[in-house]
Amino acid sequence: MTATGTFDVSLTPQKDDSAPAGRMLINKTYHGDVIGSGVGQMVSKRIENGHAVYFAIEEVTATIDGKSGTFTLLHKGLMNPDGQSLSIEIMPTSGTGQLSSISGNCEIEQKDGVHFYTLHYQL
């Protein structure tokens, strides 16, 4: 199954002088086929040659296709001067409530300042 829509995101930098990477709190509001919110943390690192990496764990509380519950998204992004890649997977067995059997992955795209998602999932 596929769910699509948009999301609003707020990233709040966290001060941590002892670590070589940046850390941010994530707050999202999902619109469209997924109605709900996401909260999490992101750790990222960028170096001068244009390479960057980020990992994030996001806990989603939502209703999808009339079913409510929670699940965890695992984000992994890589960037270099030639392009970027992003992988977002639903953590196996992380679903609760009516989403307890959820599995799949998510794609995101930003266009003209709007964030779009496509969630490919099975229940």
UniProtKB/TrEMBL annotation:
Residues 1-13 have a biased composition (Polar residues). Gene3D superfamilies: SO1590-like. InterPro entries: DUF3224, SO1590-like_sf. It comes from the Bacteria. It holds the Pfam family DUF3224. Residues 1-20 are annotated as: Disordered. This is DUF3224 domain-containing protein. It comes from Thalassotalea algicola. The lineage of its organism: Bacteria, Pseudomonadati, Pseudomonadota, Gammaproteobacteria, Alteromonadales.
